[in-house]
């Protein structure tokens, strides 16, 4: 099949590699001049690492990623460990921790190696489809056609507005009052200071919790860097977009002024940071065009808070399920509308549940140490609270479901029932 992908971010490049290695004709179109890898550390949960193994990427990921055995919750004022939560439980597949930059570079090189073509400085103006083909119009007037278009153009996706314009439902991101400030530091520089030893003493994901703020740190022995993401709730700032390169370090230092010595010191060492407002997409009525040949992928369909470490994993699951359905159909180009509808039916309920969980976890962490003692999280989106049972998110069954999901098996079960 001829597959067109809009966006050379992590989702678009992951899809390009997956489908190119299955011998499809894949072209990626990116509006920027070069690759962009905004953001810090990322997780590949066992549900995703299971898939990445089948894609033949285990060796490459072991080279750049650290295995994360647990999540350590700490009291931010003292640095004391409060509890440790297994992040991969008894899974046969690891929880990998790495950075967005490393993953983007990996998937770009693997996609090219597999035969995909990536075109930069290509702005997409319009998309449309009919029962036979999908069409994309570039800013230079060129029209490109294919059997399927995958729109991985992010939370501000233009494609989303084009293919869902017939629906009377919210399509805009829901922006929270929480700003996350991202830092990446040279680990050797951090290690020079005695008070920062607890930042590099393990390869786990460390969550430092206080009232109305929290930080997540991760040390990479392979990359020899330390990433920290500091979350604060405050009034509106001068920030114009969801993400920008120039965070106000003095503001973060002030907010975390009561933190333990290690956090305060590392914020003094840092010279710059990026920042972004935590945001998510409301549940969409569908992820596909009416004719079914254009599909939203990743953040363009289901952007979520990063607080559960599930964003990248859900993208990988999306891609794998779609690839399984396409691969097992004798005439996928002719049956595209049926395949994308089934794909959406398989994926939508799981992803929307994890969106809820991710946002709930953000506000849970903002309650600081009280989350360990059974208090309710801060109120969020009251109109949806009636449909959410917070207690479900705390059960071992739910946690196992988030981590151990088998996308290939889910696709097989759905096909057997159809």
TrEMBL record:
SUPFAM superfamilies (alphabetical): FAD/NAD(P)-binding domain
Keyword Flavoprotein in annotation: yes
InterPro entries linked: FAD-bd (IPR002938), FAD-dep_Monooxygenase_BioMet (IPR050493), FAD/NAD-bd_sf (IPR036188)
Domain of life, per lineage: Eukaryota
Keywords: FAD, Flavoprotein, Monooxygenase, Oxidoreductase
Residue span(s) of domain FAD-binding: 2-323
GO molecular function ontology, one term from the record: monooxygenase activity
Family according to the record: Belongs to the paxM FAD-dependent monooxygenase family.
This protein's name: FAD-binding domain-containing protein
Organism listed in the record: Clonostachys chloroleuca
């Amino acid at each position: 099949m001829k597959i067109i992908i809009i966006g050379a971010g992590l989702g678009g490049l992951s899809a390009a590699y997956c489908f190119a290695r299955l011998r499809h004709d894949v072209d990626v179109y990116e509006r920027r001049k070069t690759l962009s890898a905004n953001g810090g550390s990322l997780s590949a949960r066992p549900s995703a690492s299971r898939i990445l193994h089948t894609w033949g990427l285990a060796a490459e990921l072991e080279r750049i990623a650290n295995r994360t055995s647990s999540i350590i919750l700490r009291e931010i004022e003292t640095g004391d460990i409060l509890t440790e939560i297994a992040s991969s439980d008894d899974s046969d597949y690891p929880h990998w921790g790495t950075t967005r930059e490393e993953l983007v570079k990996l998937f770009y090189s693997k996609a090219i190696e597999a035969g995909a073509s990536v075109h930069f400085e290509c702005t997409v103006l319009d998309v449309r489809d009919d029962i036979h083909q999908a069409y994309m119009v570039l800013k230079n007037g060129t029209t490109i056609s294919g059997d399927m278009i995958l729109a991985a153009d992010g939370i501000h996706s233009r494609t989303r507005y084009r293919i869902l314009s017939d629906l009377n439902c919210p399509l805009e991101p829901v922006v929270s009052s929480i700003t996350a400030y991202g830092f990446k530091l040279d680990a050797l520089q951090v290690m020079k200071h005695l008070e920062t030893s607890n930042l590099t003493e393990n390869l786990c994901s460390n969550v430092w919790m206080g009232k109305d703020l929290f930080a997540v740190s991760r040390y990479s022995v392979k990359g020899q860097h330390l990433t920290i993401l500091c979350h604060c709730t405050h009034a509106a700032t001068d920030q114009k977009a969801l993400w920008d390169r120039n965070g106000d370090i003095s503001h973060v230092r002030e907010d975390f002024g009561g933190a333990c010595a290690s956090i305060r010191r590392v914020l003094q060492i840092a010279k710059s940071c990026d920042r972004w407002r935590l945001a998510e997409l409301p549940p969409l009525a569908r992820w596909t065009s009416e004719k079914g040949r254009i599909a939203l992928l990743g953040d363009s369909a289901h952007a979520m808070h990063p607080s559960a470490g599930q964003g990248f994993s859900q993208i990988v699951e999306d891609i794998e399920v779609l690839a399984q359905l396409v691969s097992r159909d004798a005439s996928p180009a002719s049956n595209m509308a049926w395949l994308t509808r089934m794909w959406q039916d398989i994926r939508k309920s799981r992803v929307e549940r994890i969106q809820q969980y991710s946002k709930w976890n953000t506000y849970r962490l903002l309650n600081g140490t009280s989350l360990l003692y059974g208090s309710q999280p801060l109120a969020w989106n009251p109109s949806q609270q009636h449909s959410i049972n917070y207690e479900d998110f705390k059960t071992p069954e739910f946690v196992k479901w988030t981590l151990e999901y088998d996308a290939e098996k889910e696709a097989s079960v759905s096909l057997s029932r159809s």
